[in-house]
Amino acid sequence: MRKTQLYLTVFTLFLFAGTLCYGQEKVDRVTVPFSNPSKPGLVKAHTYNGGITVKGYNGKEVIIEARLRGEILTEKKKISEKAKGMRLIQTRTTGLSVVEEDNVMSISVESSKKTVDLTIQVPFSTSLKLHGYKNGDITVDKVNGEIEVDRYKGELKFTDVSGAVVAHAYSGNITVTFVKVDPEKPMSFSNWKGDIDVTFPANIKANMKMKSDRGEIYSDFDLKIMPTPQEALKGSRKKDGKYRISIGQFIYGTISGGGPEYQFKTYSGDILIRKAK
Amino acid sequence: MKCKHIKVKFPDFLIGELEDISKKEIQEHVSTCFSCREELESLSEIWTKLGVLPQEQPSDSLRSRFYGMLDAYKQGLEQEKVKPRVHKLQGGWLTHWWPRQPAFQVTFSLALLLVGLTAGYLLNLNGKKVYEVASLRQEVQGMRQTLAISLLEQSSPTERLRGVGLSYRMEKPNKKIIQSLLDILDNDSNVNVRLAAVDALYLFHDNPTVKEGLIQSLSRQTSPLVQVSLIDLMVNMHERRAIESLKQLIQDEKFNPDVKNHAEQGIQQLTY
Fold first, then answer.
1. SS3 for chain B, per residue?
2. What does pTM read for this prediction?
3. Tens of pLDDT along B170-212?
4. Which of B225, B230, B260 has the highest number of chain A CBs within 10 A, making it the mutation to test binding with A?
5. Closest approach of chain B CAs to the CA of A82, in angstroms?
6. By CB distance 3.0 to 4.6 Å, which of A76, B7, B160, B200 could disulfide with B168?
7. Which of A166, A186, A213 sits opposite B165 (nearest CB)?
8. What residues does each domain of chain B span?
C-alpha cells in the first residue's frame, strides 16, 4: 500500500554442486529477515510434495531449510541401459524460493516430482499460513499467532501453540495443544478421515460447535449443551404448526459462559476436546 | 491507491514546483498507467489554454466607479457610528443587574449554564425515549451488517469466520450479506470458512436466493466435507428440487464414494 513498496529479499536458489555431494541429502539453507522485525510477520509456505516443520525460536529472522529427501540411492538403480558407463549429472534442485514484502514472507518449493521437506524457524510471535498436498506431515511447535493450515494427506501436529488455529486436513489426524488462546478469535478444525484431538487451557471461554458424522465426540470440559440456532429459530416460527427436529446438525455447547466460536467437524473420525492439566 | 497518490501531485507537476524525484516518479507512473496519462494530458491542455487567455485590462470608467463605491462605504461607516449609543442606552437596565466583580460574573454564568442543562435534560426525558431506542437498535443492526461484510472480505480466515458468526446472529440480513455468504460458500479458499458459511446460510433458507444458491453450490464444491454438509442441509430443508442434483452427483465419477452413499441416503429421506 505504501509508496515505497519494495521487495526486500528475493532468493531463488539453484544448486549446481550436485556432483560434489553425490550420495548425500541435499539441503538449501537461507536466512531471511522481515522488513519490520518489531512487528509480528506472516510466513506463508507452500509445498506440493513433502512435509513442513515450523518451530518458534528466540530470534528475529526466519531460517529456512529445504531438504531434498534421500532419493539418491534409488536414482542409482534408475540409470538405464543406454547410459551405461556414464555418470548421472545431478541437475535436481530443491527449487526453493522466498519472497519477502511488507512483513509477509512467501516460501515455496516449485517441484512436484521430488519430495522436499521444509524446516522453518520463525520468531515466536509469527502468523503462519501453510499449505501442502502429500508426502509428509505438517508440524508446528511453540508459535504464537494466527495459524492457518490446509493439507490434503498427512497429519497435522501442533504443540505448545498460542493464538488461534484454523486447520483442515483431508485425511490425517489433527492434534493440537494450546498454551494460550486468543480470547477474541474464532477457530475451526476439520477433516474427512482421522481424529481431531485438541487440548485447550482449562480457563478458556468459548462456544463449541461440533459434529462427527461417523465418529464420537469426547470432552472433559464442563460443556453446557445449547439448542442449535436453527432450533431456536424454528421455535419462534411455527408457521405450519409442525414441529421439526433436525438431526445431523452440529451440536452446540458453551464452556464457562461462552466466547468466540470453535468449530469442529469430521466425517469419519472422533473429536476429542481435552482440558490441559 | 498509487494512482490516487500520483494524481494529487499533477497540479504541482504542471507548475513545475516539484522536486526531481517526484517528477521522475510521475513520469514513470504515467508511462505505464493509461488512465493517469490521459488525465495528465487533459489537465496540461487546460493549463496551456489558461495561459493563452488574454489578461483583462481595467477600463477607464472602472477607476471612477471604484472611488464612487469607496465614498459610499465611508458614508455608511459614519452613520453606523451614531447607532451604538442607542444600544448602550437600551442595555442600561441590564448593566445594572450585571455584577461588577469577575468572581461573581463567573458564578452567575455557571449558574445560568446549570439551569439550561437541567431544563434540556428534563425536556428530553419526557419525549422521544421510545423512538430513540428503536432507532438505536436499527443503527446497531446496520453497523453489524457493515462490520460483517467488511469482515467477510478479510484475508485472514479467523476474521472471515468472525464475519460468518456475526451474520447468523442477525434477524434480517440484507441482500449484500447473503450474497457475500454465497460467494464464500462457492469461492473461499479455506474449507473451514466454507463449512461455517453452509451453516449460516441454512438459517436463511426461506429466502429464495439462498435456497437456489445452496442447490447450485453442490456441484461446485470440491471438498467432500462441504458436500456432505450441503446434502444434510438439503434433507433438512425438505427440498425436493435437490433430488435431481443429488442424482447427478451419484453418477459423477469425481465424487468420493462416501459422499455418494450420503447422497443416496439423502434421496431416500427426501422421497419418503
1. CHHHHHHCCHHHHHHCCCCHHHHHHHHHHHHHCHHHHHHHHHHHHHHHHHHHCCCCCCCHHHHHHHHHHHHHHHHHHHHHHHHHHHHHHHCHHHHHHCCCCHHHHHHHHHHHHHHHHHHHHHHHHHCCHHHHHHHHHHHHHHHHHHHHHHHHCCCCHHHHHHHHHHHCCCCCCCHHHHHHHHHHHHHCCCHHHHHHHHHHHHHCCCCHHHHHHHHHHHHHCCCHHHHHHHHHHHHHHCCCCHHHHHHHHHHCCCCCHHHHHHHHHHHHHHHC
2. 0.66
3. 767 778 888 888 988 988 889 999 999 988 888 888 888 888 8
4. B225
5. 40
6. B200
7. A186
8. 2-46, 171-271
